[in-house]
């Protein structure tokens, strides 16, 4: 080892690094709050076989049957048409609170995590705290909002505003916990990536489904029932 | 008396969702993780955010961690990635600074005040030269010497091939020598 390398090693002891924060406390709290990981082992070969049969089989079907078939398998185009068929929902919150309009490419670049979608959104909004919202329809006449941010569902903090008529149901999506909120306008509270409690108002006068996929929190707002919301959530790829 | 669990045992328990076992792993690695993040972000708050987010991510990614592989480079690679993402966001950059000089006890083995001053000056000069290097050079030398990572660990943390780490280190040392010569 050269003299310069030895001097560099000695320098290590001389650098005044900022004191190391007690990360384990916050991390332990976060993983304890996170929904239990459930492993669902899906044989890859089986999944591939089903997709292959689906892809081949669909070519032989009539247009109507093909559409139904695609819907069944939530293939990309079918999911978009499905979203397009949803009713328009009244926007009950100021659109500026969703952030600024950006292109899909810019949102993908700046999100800091891989964004999932239900097909190409009509409008995209990005907020300073990293929340990305895909608007299907238009912001004036929305049919569905899909928001994503690093964070976690924290059901202890679902707050009912005008409590009567608001209901919160616990659901399971791909092995992770979620919440389906319906009824009166409501707030939801969640933990952001720094495990701070954040409060969010619903933007649409419909229903809200919140769920986690890893450390990303999804929020889907539309005028749909629970079963349909779950189906849409599973189609988010 | 029962022996403390090994790293492999803690990883196995954490893989099954044991938060306390994962907390023990975090405590073992939090200092080097924070320093790695700090050397990349050069901002203590960003480094804390990056290291914390990286540990949570690592917890979720544990099922994909190869059994029996060393945990540290895998963790630090996640930390470095989070730190790079944080850094892109901008923010104030802090320079590395030397610790304040400490009073040493007098005695035969203690250096003279003049000797201490000279040694301090040399370290300050080295730090200035290190800081004046380009980012790639500075990071590879920081990993190898300030964090004392091996070539393999550095390669994993900086997402480079081992051979690239070797050649980059050698070139960075050469440039550092050049800067030191210029300063004299």
Could you characterize what this model shows?
The complex is a heterodimer of chains A (237) and B (184). With 237 residues, chain A is α+β, with helices and mostly antiparallel strands. Chain A has one domain (64-235). Chain A contains 7 helices and 10 strands. Chain A has helices at 3-12, 23-33, 44-58, 63-72, 76-84, 104-111, 226-235; strands at 100-102, 123-126, 132-137, 142-153, 167-173, 176-182, 187-192, 197-201, 207-213, 216-222. In chain A, strands 1, 2, 3, 4, 5, 6, 7, 8, 9 and 10 form a 10-stranded antiparallel sheet that branches. In chain A, 31% of the residues are buried. Mean pLDDT of chain A is 73; it is low at 36-79 and 159-163. Chain B has 8 helices and no strands. Chain B has helices at residues 7-15, 19-41, 44-61, 71-88, 113-131, 135-146, 151-158, 162-183. In chain B, helix 1 crosses helix 2 and helix 7 crosses helix 8. The longest helix of chain B has 23 residues, at 19-41. Chain B is elongated, with a radius of gyration of 19 Å. The A-B interface holds A 2, 4-5, 7-12, 14-18, 20-24, 26-28, 30-32, 34, 36-37, 39, 112, 150, 193-195, 214-215 and B 17, 19-20, 22-24, 26-27, 30-31, 33-35, 38, 44, 47-49, 51-53, 55-57, 59-60, 63, 85, 96-100, 122-123, 126-127, 130, 141, 144-148, 173, 176-177, 180.
Summarize the structure.
The complex is a heterodimer of chains A (237) and B (184). Chain A has 237 residues and is α+β, with helices and mostly antiparallel strands. In chain A, 31% of the residues lie in helices and 27% in strands.
Strand content of chain B: under 5%
- What helical percentage do the residues of chain A reach? 25-40%
Main sheet specs of chain B: none
CATH homolog superfamily of the largest domain in chain B: RNA polymerase sigma factor, region 2, helix turn helix motif
Strand content range of chain A: 25-35%
State the largest interface. Answer: A-B, 36 and 48 residues
- Report the average pLDDT across residues of chain A: 73
SS-based class of chain A: alpha+beta
Number of strands of chain A: 10
The shape of chain B is elongated
Number of helical regions of chain A: 7
Could you say what the CATH architecture of the largest domain in chain B is? Orthogonal Bundle
CATH class designation of the largest domain in chain B: Mainly Alpha
- What is the total number of structural domains of chain B? 2
Oligomer: heterodimer
> What is the average per-residue confidence, as pLDDT of chain B, rounded to a whole number?
85
Distance between the termini of chain B: 59 Å
Q: Could you give a short account of the major beta sheet of chain A?
A: 10 strands, antiparallel
Question: Uncertain segments of chain B of ≥5 residues (pLDDT<50)?
Answer: none
CA-based gyration radius of chain A? 22 Å
